[in-house]
Amino acid sequence: MTIDIPDGDDRMDIVDELQAWAEARRTLVVRDNRGRVWISTLTGFSSPDTDWGSQVTFEATRVSSHLPGGVR
Predict the structure, then answer these.
(1) What is the tens place of the pLDDT at every residue in 12-38?
(2) Whole-model pTM above 0.90?
(3) Any idea where the domains of the chain sit in the sequence?
């Protein structure tokens, strides 16, 4: 998963917040560009600087889950 953050006054605040999410290993719902949805945690954080800002990347690691309401 990649998030592009353009250069600006709040760029580093946004990068820091995303890094805190990755370090907390929060569980979240991920939806990819094909419409597939799964429960995951964020791992593998990196945020190299570019000429135009930062490019934050994560790995979304799928976790087992039983969603309320059963399979639909």
Answers:
(1) 999 999 889 888 877 888 888 888 888
(2) no
(3) 2-62
